[in-house]
Amino acid sequence: MAADNKKAGLRVQQLISAVLFAAVLGMAGWLTTRYPLEADWTAGNRNTLTAASEKQLAAMPEALTFKIFMYPRSDMRQAIEADLRRYQRVKANITVEFVDPGSNPALVREYNVSRAGEAVVEYQGRRETLAATTEQAITTALQRLAYGGERWIVFLEGHGERSIEDAEQNGYSEFAQLLRDKGLKVRALNLAKDLRVPDNTAALVVANPTRPLLAGEAKIVADWVTAGGNLLWLVDPAEGRVDPATSLDAVAKMLEVSWLRGTGILLESASLGLPPFVYVTTQYPANPVTQGFQENVLFPLVRGLSYKSAAGTAPPASGAWNAQPLLTTSDQAWLEIGALEGELEMNAPQGDTQGPLTLGVTLTREIPVASPKPAEGEPAPQAPKPLSQRVVLIGDSDFLGNAYFGQLGNSLLGLNVAQWLASRDEQLNIDIPKAPDRSLVLPAWGLYTIYVGFAFLLPAGLLGFGVTRWVMRRRK
C-alpha cells in the first residue's frame, strides 16, 4: 500500500513538473514575441546599422522608397530583405517594393535599370541606383540624395596646385572621388580662362599653389571672399626664398591671418617611429568641424599660422570674423627656419618660433544683406537673413594627397571640412567602414595541403583504420 502511494505521489510530481515546464516554455515564447531581443555576433557587426547610418536616417525625415528589380524566384531576395530590414527598424517610413522586370518593362525603362538585381532608392523626387544593398552602398546613396541643387566644390588650378585629375601620389583624385560619392559635385577652375568663380560654387579650394597667382587672378579670389564666398586654403611650408602664398596677401589680410615661415617640428613624433616633422593629431580644440571626431590624422609637413582672436566672450560684431583653432600642437613644438638635417633644436635667435603652434583655423562671419526698397505705398519688407560665410585654413596640403589619403582619419577629416564648408552640417562624421572580407583566400601551399589531405591522407587513414579493426577481430 505504501509503495502504491509512493508511486502515485511520484506521478503527481512528474505531472506537475511537466505542466510547469510547459508553462515556462509558453511564457518564454510569449516574452520573445512581446519583448524581442536581438544580438549581432558577426565580424564588424555586419547585421546592425552603424551609428553613422542611423545619424544619416535621422537627417532625412521624409519617406524613403526602395524599388528592387528582381525576378520572383531569385535566390537574392531573402538577403536583400535582410539588408533593408536593418534600415526599417530605425526609420518607420521606408517602403520596399519588389518589381518583376519581366512583367514591368515600362518601369524598367523609366528607372533606367540595366540588369536584374539593381535597386533604386527615392527621396523627395530624387533617385539613386544601387548595384548592391550593403550598408556602405545604401548610406552613401542616401548622403547623395539628402541634398538637391547644384553646389560645387571648385579646385583652383594653373599654378601648380594639387590636381583632382592627378592619380599619382601628389594628386587629389581620391579626395575628389570621395566628394563625388557623398553627393558633392567637383570641378577644376582656371581663372586665367574662366575669369570668375562660378555662382553655384559652395566652396573654393586653393590647395598649395607652387607658383604665384597673377595679380588679376589674386583679385578674383579676394573679391570672391569679400562677397561672402566659402574658402578652403591649404598651404605647405615654403621652399626657397619665394613664398607663393604671398600672392594672396590681400586674402590673408582680409581674413586677418598670417602664414608663418618654417616647418613644424614635433619631437613627440619620434615615440611613434616617425620623423620629427610629421604631425599626428591626438586631440582637437572645440570646433564645429571636429565635434565628435575621434580619429587621428597624419600631416607629413606642417606650417603654422597666426590669427586675430576675439577678445572676451562677446559675439563678434556684424561682419567681423569669428576665429576658432582647428589644429594645435603642444608647447614643445616649434617652427624650424633652417634645413631639416642633423639634430634639430629650437633656436630663437635664428628665427625659430616656439610652440604651441596653430596649424589650422576656421573662420566664420555673418554678412548683412541689404533689404530691397519697398514699392511706393507698401510696408517695408522683412530684413533678409545675413549671409553666413565659412573659411578653413590648414598649414598642410599633403594630408589630402593620394599618398596619405588612406592613412588614419585623413579622408574623414577632409570630408568633414568639405561638408562643413558646403553647409551640410548633418553629414559631419558620417562614414561607413567597409565590411571585413567575406571570402577566404589561401596561399598555394594551403590549397595543396587541403587537396592532399582530403584526396589522399583522409581516405588512407580511414582505410587503414578499417583494415586494422578487421585484423584485430580476426585474431580474436
Tell me what you see in this structure.
The protein has helices at 2-34, 51-58, 77-90, 105-110, 135-145, 173-181, 191-194, 215-226, 249-255, 410-421, 444-475, and strands at residues 64-69, 94-99, 119-123, 126-130, 152-156, 185-189, 201-207, 231-234, 257-259, 263-265, 279-280, 298-299, 305-307, 322-328, 334-336, 353-354, 358-367, 387-394. Strands 6-5-7-8-18-17-14 form a seven-stranded mixed sheet. Strands 2-1-3-4 form a four-stranded mixed sheet, with helices on one face. The protein is of the alpha/beta class and 476 residues long. The protein is 31% helix and 18% strand. The mean pLDDT is 83.
Explain briefly what this protein structure is.
This protein is α/β, with parallel strands linked by helices and 476 residues long. It has eleven helices and 18 strands.
Oligomeric state: single chain
What's the SSE pattern? HHEHEHEEHEHEHEHEHEEEEEEEEEEHH
Kindly provide the radius of gyration, computed on alpha-carbon positions and rounded to a whole number of angstroms.
32 Å
Helix proportion: 25-40%
Structural class: alpha/beta
Number of helices: 11
Shape: extended
* Rounded average pLDDT: 83
Largest sheet: 7 strands, mixed
Strand content: 15-25%
Q: How are strands sequenced across the largest beta sheet? A: 6-5-7-8-18-17-14
Indicate the low-confidence ranges by residue numbers.
none
Query: How far is the N terminus from the C terminus?
Result: 53 Å
Number of strands: 18
